[in-house]
Amino acid sequence: MDIRAVFTGIWLGTIGLATLRLTEYQEPWQAKTWWALALAYLTFQLGTTLGILLGHKYYPAAVRKLKTAKIGRLRLQFRENRLFAICVITTLIGITCFSINIAIKGYVPCFSDDFNAYRDFYTRFHVFSVASTGASGLCYYCIHTQKLPIWKKLILLLCIFYLVFLFPIAVVSRGVFVVAALSLATSVFYLNKRKLTALILSLAVIMGVYWFASYLRNYTDQQLDVFFEPAQITISTEMSTEPSQSEMDTTEEPTAAQPSQQPSKEGFRLPSRVAFLYGYLTVSHDNLNEAVKYTQSYTWGIRQMAPFNVILRIGAINEAIEQAEYYQVNPYLNTTNLIGDFYYDFGSWGVALCMLLWAVIFGLVQGFYDRSRNIFAL
Predict the structure, then answer these.
(1) What is the CA radius of gyration of the chain?
(2) pLDDT at residue 248 greater than cutoff 70
(3) Res 241: pLDDT
(4) What does pTM read for this prediction?
């Protein structure tokens, strides 16, 4: 599937859900918010198209460069007979770092009564535990493409079970699960002849486990209602044919029912768990609107460094982000997205420039895949 189409579906879908305003904290967006959203969409399409063209053009040169790449005297050679060792070593690194993290923190988030336990579990070792989950798809690919003895295949299946299910559930992280599950689903999709069936089943499993992981957060329905504030939505229906109360009080004899001047109204309210999902799909757009409304000064690229600072551990970057302006619709809902970070850093035009840069990178990856049809690029 083309990344431009995937982005369009997610972009229009989440924005469309957000504009239904099914929670109390949502409000009509500023015109400038719509301008930023439209600008981001346009530049994403332009950037990915440019990246795809560049990927097609420079793929042969990139392959030649990769085949002769060296780190010092060590020459990088990609051979499939090394896949089993890579999968097992990567998984063992993840397990080791996870064990160290448990020793440091003294608990496993899944078994903690504190619903903030998953958030307080982060250390620099946790970074490598999470990074290892990307090998799940490689494990599946190795099982289906290599001539391995049964015991090696069983080891790889155990690696998949740990990376995709055991570890994400243990740390109560749906984001980690999605990364691992998408890596696995990519391999299943790539290697299966019935691709549509494989895709539907993979997505069904991902959504099911995602929903189960949400329950493990230990939130009660009352807490979810406080966090996500589901609104009572009233829908006007056709004119009622029932006589009004005043007509019944003043009329001595029964008369034929006349249409009332007031339409009848029906309503609904999102169940707490559905509001949970709805909020996570939409709140980043609502928080962008808050940024557009209130931001007075910009952070000039500091937020773009935040993901890299997970490993860099430069205290000044974290301190600058903590002291910078940040606005949200609800104290409990601090989710932002790429567009929000772009806006906090540089304003509306920063949205266009930063999105263009990231989109070119995304497009390059797709361009390489279009030329190679290689699972690793996919």
Answers:
(1) 26
(2) no
(3) 54
(4) 0.73
